[in-house]
Amino acid sequence: MSNTNSVINIAIDGPAGSGKSTLAKRLAKEQGYIYVDTGAMYRAMALYLIRQEIDPGDAEKIERACQDVDITIDYVNNEQVVLLNGENVNGLIRTEEVSKMASVSSANGRVREKLVALQKELAKKRSVVMDGRDIGTVVLPNAQVKIYMDASPRVRAKRRYDELSARGEACDLETIEQEIIERDHRDMTRENSPLKQAEDAVYLNTSELSVEEVLVRMKEIINDRLGNGPDTTYGEKL
Ligand code: DC
Q: Rounded CA gap, 131 and 44, in Å?
């Protein structure tokens, strides 16, 4: 085990819209752990490539970009802030353009090598809830708790649709669902660290569950895995 006893690592993986970040954030708060959103790091890298007009298929330029770019994370009021060469880019990395570029550029082995090293380092020193696509399989193979969250493409598209609509952005459910299916396919079939459930991860389908219901289930899984006794008794024990 690479973890010391006092450091707890909780690894959460799953496709876009499965509820990972909402739940990971809530869990981290309740457990008093640091939340690490690894997708935001791939998004910051993607933003850099877009700004530099680098084609994600250009291996030489990607290699140089990995040498030039400095991506770090910091915490302000307990919120993760991603710094791209020192600039806070939190407000710039949630666009569809960045999402698409991140999905393509995160398949690059050199990009992954750079960001995985940073992620491993973060989890060594402090208890974390880390979410992404390869956390249980590659980044934190020794995590004490691994959860693979999932939901049907339709449900995930509807969640995204509701989010965009609430922001007053025009969108179309069918198009969003199609984009989600394409992104899943890219994330699951790439050669480097494809999205897949770690063998020792607990599978959690959130399609029919509310955020609060998922949170209860996750806490049961954590208690169970950390050996605090499975918290699965409802009602008074007879
Ligand atoms: O979770 P997200 O949508 O913010 O992730 C953005 C992209 O980065 C997504 O296409 C998958 C990729 N990603 C990855 O390859 N590995 C991770 N650990 C996290 C995200």
A: 16
